[in-house]
Amino acid sequence: MKENKIGVLGCGWLGFPLAKDLIKQGFKVKGSTTNKEKIKSLEKENIDPYLIEIGENKDSKSLDSFLEKLDVLILNIPPKLRSNIKSNYFEKIRFVKNSKCFDKIKYIIFVSSTSVYGSKQGKINSKTEPIPDSKSGKEILKTEKLFQEKNNTIIRFGGLIGNKRNPLKYLQKKDEILNPQAPINYIHLNDCIGIINSIIEKNIWGKTFMGVSPYHPSKREYYDRLCNEKNLNKLKFSSKETTVNKEINDENILKLLNYKFKNPKF
């Protein structure tokens, strides 16, 4: 498939290193950004750059040009539903799908989130139906349904770790951390890229995967270890009894993709 042209719509924390990796493999890659200053960074990596703002009232010309003649589209637009309560994620993604060039794309990878599963769903596997209990989870699941077709694959990634990204910095600012016994559901950047590469390489379409490392220590265990490694004060965990959170494992990552995690314990 190296002759195929791939578009990465959203060259941010995940999309940019993914696009660079695809270039190294010999693919022709288009990449989009909302930041004018990042255009030169994309060009430097031989990524064909596009400045695109997604939204109902935005000009669709740049989007149409980006989608034109793509074989594979990796739709990687973060919902940002927590930071922007007015954001209408579903309409943003539908705006992309309504492009006159969209239906000519052979394959779509839609980057989703494990937030589509409710916090009380317990042990979750590939057969578990999502029952979101948050506003963002409900909107993301609604958006997924735009892509449930045989030539599209959905990846529900867990918490993203790596490349200087870890919730520890955020959690250190909190007075108290709830639910210390809840299992973590994280995935390293390298494995996000690895799973996407495996889908493209093996032509696995029409599926839904959960991109989560098979490593599920409790919050307390994981962050205590991390604080020890970094010589930092331990986090203050709540003593209140709360519902233990979901634990996510997808056996199809191994069965269908034959994928072995590179950074299972980040």
Mean pLDDT: 93
Looking at CATH, the homologous superfamily is: NAD(P)-binding Rossmann-like Domain
CATH hierarchy class name:
Alpha Beta
Q: Which CATH architecture is right?
A: 3-Layer(aba) Sandwich
In CATH, the topology is named Rossmann fold
Give the beta-strand count.
11
Distance between the termini: 30 Å
Provide the gyration radius in Å. Answer: 19 Å
Assembly type of the shown chains? single chain
| Amount of beta strand | 15-25%
Order of helices and strands: EHEHEHEHEEHEEHEHEHEH
Number of helices: 9
- Categorize the overall geometry: globular
Q: Write out the strand line-up for the largest beta sheet, numbering strands in chain order.
A: 3-2-1-4-5-7-10
- State the helicity in percent bands: 25-40%
State the low-pLDDT regions, or none. none
Class based on secondary structure composition and strand pairing:
alpha/beta
**How many domains would you count in the coordinates?**
1
Tell me about the biggest sheet?
7 strands, parallel
How would you summarize the topology of this molecule?
Blueprint: E1 5-9, H1 15-24, E2 28-33, H2 39-44, E3 48-51, H3 61-67, E4 72-75, H4 89-97, E5 107-113, E6 123-124, H5 135-144, E7 152-157, E8 159-161, H6 168-171, E9 186-188, H7 189-202, E10 208-211, H8 219-229, E11 247-248, H9 252-255
Can you walk through the features of this model?
- There is one protein chain.
- The protein is built from nine helices and eleven strands.
- Helix 4 (89-97) packs parallel to helix 5 (135-144).
- Helix content is 28%, strand content 17%.
- The strands form three sheets. The protein has a seven-stranded parallel β-sheet, sandwiched between helices. It has a two-stranded parallel sheet with strand order 6-11. It has a two-stranded parallel sheet with strand order 8-9.
- It has one domain (5-163, 186-216, 246-255): 3-Layer(aba) Sandwich (Rossmann fold).
- The model has no long low-confidence stretch (mean pLDDT 93).
- The protein is of the alpha/beta class.
